[in-house]
Design a protein that fits this description.
This protein is α/β, with parallel strands linked by helices and about 400 residues long. The chain is about 40% helix and about 20% strand. Strands 5-4-3-2-1-6-8-7 form an 8-stranded mixed beta sheet, with helices on both faces. Helix 10 crosses helix 11. It binds adenosine-5'-diphosphate. The site of adenosine-5'-diphosphate has 13 residues, from helix 10 and helix 12.
């Protein structure tokens, strides 16, 4: 089977969830998709789509192995099934959040690779990587003959130069512990920057792009000549702009000060910065931008402040990255907020005329400011810097990378 003839199962396993898509690489169409929720908890459920309809399986899923068995059952189901047997699945691509310095690119799963994933990377992403490894093991048990690939969120950022990814700590400590910037959302930044080049009719090598992946987690990346040269997330996804519930960048001394004042341990403090801060903490209302916009419309000043901070910090990265690249050809907005919140896009782009950005306010508000699922240009025709809304598709990147590897 050649890569482009294959059907690839993309698996994104969380600690109690498992999302999947089956993609036909011949035409890159999604044949089926769905997700298991509450794995290992009471009331587990699989919501599966295929053949134009949806089916809900309420079945006890004590672990990920049972979940993946149920997914395969749904894929071959009489009503919503899209394949006759699991032998039609050419390969499985697994999403993995953190690679550390152990994996620089998409990697075929072998016992050695799995060992490295489990022994070396769990501490880098304690919430995400163990879940991914559980997903890989579950799939290997159920589909022992099917090749599996690990596709890392951080791979696209592996091209960052040392001066961009290092923190100003003792170099020996960086070497000993791997403490540096790794970045995240790499598959999304890779996808939208390549789509932008295609849309603009240019080669990636000809373009300097800032991609803004703005969702529950947000990151901004400088893509120079098709390669990542810097990104806003860091050692973990806590860094960069403030997010739904994450603080974003903060002075390390303030963290220690806060911990002392609040009587928190190290890990409680990090948990606080991950879960109780960001726009939720600033607004006191919600982590969801739809709620913040509604609050702002009702005159809630802290919702407005949270929105202002988010746009301000995003803009700060756009400016910094234009400086880093020595120019700017295109700004891309993607993910939940980037695709659907026009006021954020407007606030980020306003005042960037000096960089050559001529924003098209009218185009920005077409369709109520929500993405129509295609690439939309929201800069003026004569804008030197093109501003685009590009719907992201991380699953497709995972499937492509898996197909390429094989
Ligand atoms: P993640 O995948 O990181 O969980 P998303 O990319 O789905 O997050 O982004 C979630 C954010 O996007 C939320 O703040 C939400 O308010 C916003 N969002 C998602 N869809 C819409 C929409 N249709 N209209 C407005 N905002 C939206």
């Amino acid at each position: 089977m050649k890569g482009e003839e294959m059907k690839i199962l993309v698996v994104n396993a969380g600690s109690s969830s498992l999302k999947y898509q089956l993609i036909d690489m011949e035409n890159e169409k999604v044949l089926a998709k769905g997700g298991c929720e509450r794995i290992g908890i009471d009331g587990s459920v699989l919501k599966a789509k295929g053949n134009g309809s949806e089916k809900i399986y309420e079945k006890d899923m004590p672990n990920h192995k049972v979940a993946i068995e149920l997914v395969l059952h749904a894929l071959t189901d009489d009503a919503i099934g899209v394949i006759k047997s699991m032998d039609e699945i050419g390969a499985v691509g697994h999403r993995v959040v953190a690679s550390g310095e152990y994996f620089k690119k998409t990697t075929l799963v072998t016992p050695e690779v799995l060992k490295t994933l489990e022994e070396k990377t769990f501490e880098l992403a304690p919430l995400h990587n163990p879940a991914a490894a559980t997903g890989v093991r579950a799939c290997m048990e159920v589909m022992p003959k099917t090749p599996m690939a690990l596709v890392f969120d951080s791979s696209f950022h592996a091209t960052m130069p040392e001066k961009a990814y290092l923190y100003g700590i003792n170099y020996d400590d960086y070497k000993a512990y791997g403490v540096r910037k790794y970045g995240a959302h790499g598959t999304s930044h890779k996808f939208v920057s390549a789509e932008a080049a295609k849309y603009l009719g240019k080669k990636p090598e000809q373009l300097k792009i800032v991609t803004c992946h703005l969702g529950n987690g947000s990151s901004i990346t400088a893509v120079d000549g098709g390669k990542c040269v810097d990104t806003s997330m860091g050692f973990t996804p806590l860094a960069g702009v403030l997010m739904g519930t994450r603080s974003g960048d903060i002075d390390a001394s303030a963290v220690e000060f806060l911990a002392r004042k609040k009587g928190l341990t190290h890990s409680e403090t990090v948990n606080y910065l991950n879960k109780k801060c960001g726009v939720a903490g600033i607004s006191g209302v919600s982590s969801d931008f739809r709620d913040l916009i509604a609050g702002q419309e009702q005159g809630n000043e802290r919702c407005t402040l949270a929105l202002d901070m988010f746009a301000y910090q995003t803009k700060r990265f756009v400016g910094a990255y234009a400086a880093v690249m020595g120019g700017l050809d295109c700004i891309v907005f993607t993910a939940g907020i980037g695709e659907n919140t026009p006021t954020v896009r407007e606030d980020v782009c306003t005042g960037l005329e000096f960089l050559g950005v001529k924003f098209n306010r009218e185009a920005n508000y077409v369709n109520g400011g929500k993405s129509d699922g295609t690439i939309q240009e929201i800069s003026a025709k004569d804008s030197k810097v093109k501003v685009l809304i590009i719907p992201t598709n991380e699953e497709l990147v995972i499937a492509r990378e898996t197909a390429e590897l094989l």
